[in-house]
């Protein structure tokens, strides 16, 4: 059962091959017996899951029109507020925080009749590319337990790769869905900024953050997007748009589609094995009728520098809410208010979070605002303009997702700059607010490598279409992590 | 010039002159202590050199931004250039005080308790 896609599980539930309760119990058994080796969950919600499954089984037995996800178990990143369930964001600061309300996307999944298996591990406040900054410990990659799963949605990626859940939610500020999807052999979509509600998603960098799905296939990701996406009056950055069917274009043929290859992303610096796998993918897509053309994103070299001003600056303001007054951690026996703020935050935040708050505070401080924040925001426009110019010529842009495959645990923890360069191909997409997907395109030393497809704003369905067509031509997405064969 | 600056900070000297700070955009240990106070984060004194070093590494990465010609470029705050959507000023929230205060570290009769502010 656990090897099936959401699409297959939907059919199994409707054919009565198994009930939602059986399916949910099966996944819970796998999680409870095997996750001690992966550490992909922070909280397992056994009781709630079985209650939800019982409700779904009543609906499945009835004759009312069923939602696609009715009875389908899911795991949710611990960045989403879940009513009555700890929502820690991977931080000591929120270790005792029981959310008093649901994030909009959680409400959407509940309304659909989907089951929540638990909350997944993540880099603290989504700051990291290896899931090693979590207060709850590092997550292991099911492809090789000595390696990272990527981050920040590392728990979400690892739990799907370990077949503990058919899919999971994640969030992506600079690559946090796509990079772990690439490193764990999954399909991960960062939707267009404003397509998915961020209400109840604990904020990191508000002009960049976007929630999205991690799944086994692009088809599953499209099915999930139908529940994730939609206008939400509670999120002031949600874009007012009509409800869209993200599965509608999946089967469109690729004849005549034009795909751009940014020359800056295919320079001599690119890992030769990754380059070979990406080139093989290009040949497959060409056979299916796609044409390729070199494009240029001349300002992409500034994307990582600009990101490491914009994201920490926004984080430093967003995380000022953690002050020990209303919720979360408070230091022991504060002598006065200042002592309470400083010790609460000094003790409650981990090193990487503190580092980013300090950079952000510095970049926004008097005298430096123009040189840092304003300059970064101007570069953002240049990057957006580069993409706009490229999309005048092509429908999509293709690149690697990540510079290489999964690296060793501990390999980059002492070198923040090396860690930040993990996101060199993904960050520009967030700065420009575009949709992008990572799909598996091969193995390097038996570890998955990801291919990134970037679309124009609100062209998410076309991104999913090309990813789905690629998965009709190749079977990289069907490969299973060695660990997943357990149980 | 940047490595020279790192050398100065690593041996504990203050920045040699203001111009270097502006050109390389690096920080000293004193700067970090000041910024930490602004950010309301207590940092152990023995951690300051390591944090200063890490932040300077990042600032040297960020430094590359200064090479971009952004004359006449308008800053982009929202990826779609969207402006803040406002809602009508109507009461929408229900009173959930007890539920919202259940997470408070210390509270009394519907009030958040904090250390004494006024003597």
Topology:
The complex is a heterodimer of chains A (487) and B (119).
Chain A: H1 6-14, H2 20-34, E1 41-44, H3 46-61, E2 73-77, H4 104-112, E3 115-120, H5 154-161, E4 167-172, H6 178-184, E5 187-190, E6 210-215, H7 218-228, E7 258-262, H8 272-287, E8 291-295, H9 303-318, H10 337-348, H11 351-364, H12 370-393, E9 396-400, H13 416-420, H14 427-432, E10 436-444, E11 447-455, H15 460-473
Parallel strand pairs in A: 2-3, 7-8, 7-9
Antiparallel strand pairs in A: 1-3, 4-6, 5-6, 5-10, 9-11, 10-11
Chain B: H1 2-10, H2 18-24, H3 29-38, H4 48-62, H5 97-101, E1 107-108, E2 111-112
Antiparallel strand pairs in B: 1-2
Helix pairs in contact in B: 1-4
How far from one another are the termini of chain A?
12 Å
Overall form of chain B: flat
Amino-to-carboxy terminus distance of chain B: 50 Å
Q: How would you spell out the order of helices and strands of chain B?
A: HHHHHEE
- Summarize model confidence as the mean pLDDT of chain B: 81
Biggest sheet, spatial arrangement of strands of chain B: 1-2
Shape assignment of chain A: globular
Give a quick summary of the entry.
With 487 residues, chain A is α/β, with parallel strands linked by helices. Chain A is built from 15 helices and eleven strands. In chain B, helix 1 runs antiparallel to helix 4.
What does this structure look like?
The complex is a heterodimer of chains A (487) and B (119). Chain A has helices at 6-14, 20-34, 46-61, 104-112, 154-161, 178-184, 218-228, 272-287, 303-318, 337-348, 351-364, 370-393, 416-420, 427-432, 460-473; strands spanning 41-44, 73-77, 115-120, 167-172, 187-190, 210-215, 258-262, 291-295, 396-400, 436-444, 447-455. Chain A has 487 residues and is of the alpha/beta class. Chain A has one domain (6-256, 395-485): Amidase signature (AS) enzymes, CATH 3.90.1300. In chain A, the strands form 2 sheets. In chain A, strands 4-6-5-10-11-9-7-8 form an 8-stranded mixed β-sheet. Chain A has a 3-stranded mixed β-sheet with strand order 1-3-2, with helices on both faces. Chain A starts with 5 loop residues before the first helix and ends in a 14-residue tail after the last helix. The model of chain A has no long low-confidence stretch (mean pLDDT 97). With 119 residues, chain B is mainly alpha-helical. Chain B has a domain at 2-64. Helix content of chain B is 39%, strand content 3%. Chain B has 5 helices and 2 strands, in the order H-H-H-H-H-E-E. A two-stranded antiparallel ribbon of chain B has the order 1-2. Chain B is flat.
